[in-house]
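Database export, one record per block. Field names are fixed; values are copied verbatim from the stored entry.
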Amino acid sequence: MPPEFSAQSKQRIERVLSRYPNKQAALLPVLHIAQDEFGHLPDPVIELVAKTCDVSPAHVFGVVTFYTMFHRARHGRNELMVCTNISCMLKGGYEILHHIEQKLGIKPGQTTPDGAFTLVEEECLAACANAPMMICGQDYFLDLTPQKVDTILEDMRRRWREQQKQSPVGSTLHGVGGPTGAKV
């Protein structure tokens, strides 16, 4: 059975569509809504978005694969984007990245088995004065040290476990599977 948007997402999409001159122009915000609901953008969801925005699935696929903020595969609830560009590199960005790899047992592009974390090595994240740094969601973590990273990861893990008790990640949504949309 193909995926469908929930009633809440359909309302959000209708509000978004009303602000644009045509459905195609609303593609990016509709993709965000789809990813919020389904957790990632597999082929069936790309087809749903294409139908919603009156564009071809190939067009949607091109947009999804162009922008790093969209995910074709399931990602962890906490996506850790660690900067390793020049300023961060000179101030220990790779040491922070390797510390996180060791702490979580994953490499960039991988997700922890429990779905709590995905690690991403990123180019400049625009906080060079406070290098090394990483972003998780809307939170910037600056002037990182291994000790700060340990505290951050412990806090995220605690909040993720609390969220798990309320609504487990991996529950099936409309036949696609993925996070429930709750933010940690």
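Remark 1: The longest strand covers residues 78-83.
Remark 2: Residues 169-184 have pLDDT under 50 and may be disordered.
End of record.
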